[in-house]
Amino acid sequence: MKKKGVFGKLLGAVLLMMIGMSAVPSSALAYQMDIRNPYTDKMHLAVVDYDDVAGRWRCHGWWEVQALSTRRINVDSSVSKNIIYLFVKTSEATWSGEGIPSSITRTVNGNKFSYYDGQPCPEGPRMRTEFFVKYELEDGFLYWSPE
Question: Do residues 109 and 127 touch, judged by C-beta distance below 8 A?
Fold first, then answer.
């Protein structure tokens, strides 16, 4: 009889711990991007995505993709919309949405930055307005290549 009492207490403690852990919000992966850089120069990108927690669109950058490589970028904030916007550049080329009706413009600078619509872009070197191209995520994933 004593074994059943210890087992019951142990089972109860494990269940209580599991319930407690499920109540703690976890950081779910919102989306992933594989960015391919076929050039001999580093590639930099900025993204505009919808942040569910803030309830606003967010512009943030810069991610770096080494020359002649593909980088997987995990964005871990919760985004319910399946649309993102990208601006990508190297020292010699730019991929933007200039002239594309569905593109949007945002201010960027030369430093790492993050801001929400309704806020100014943080001060930094090379402040400028850029066009961002619209892309749809497929099952939370985007593969992007300039080719």
Answer: yes
